[in-house]
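tool=predict chain=A
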Amino acid sequence: MMKLSKSEEQLMEYIWQKEKAFMKDLIDCFPEPKPASTTVATLLKRMTDKGVIGYNQLGNSREYYPLVKKSVYFSRHVNSMIKNYFDDSVLQFASFFTKETNLSKVQLEELKKIIDSEIKKKK
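tool=predict ok
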């Protein structure tokens, strides 16, 4: 499973948002102080090598696009976290998540609606 560093993940987030983007567009997404273009180029190269992004060569420029859906990337990480930190027990994870994240009553009710809706689909 491909693992992105924090800085790669941040850049990937901008690529997901834009769907297609040139390096200059991606640099514009960063808050000040902006990273150097060489830094972003290095990250884009690493992410291309990892197979999470692709690009179209247009003249001297490359237009980058995601090869992995955001939902797929994060579901893999959540599943791997459950496996590694919660003995592969979704119940342990859910218990930890609901107790340790200080969810409000409204958020817990929203979560319950999602779960109830998924239960209906399984019948």
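The chain has a mean pLDDT of 92. The domain at 6-66 is CATH 1.10.10.10 (Arc Repressor Mutant, subunit A).
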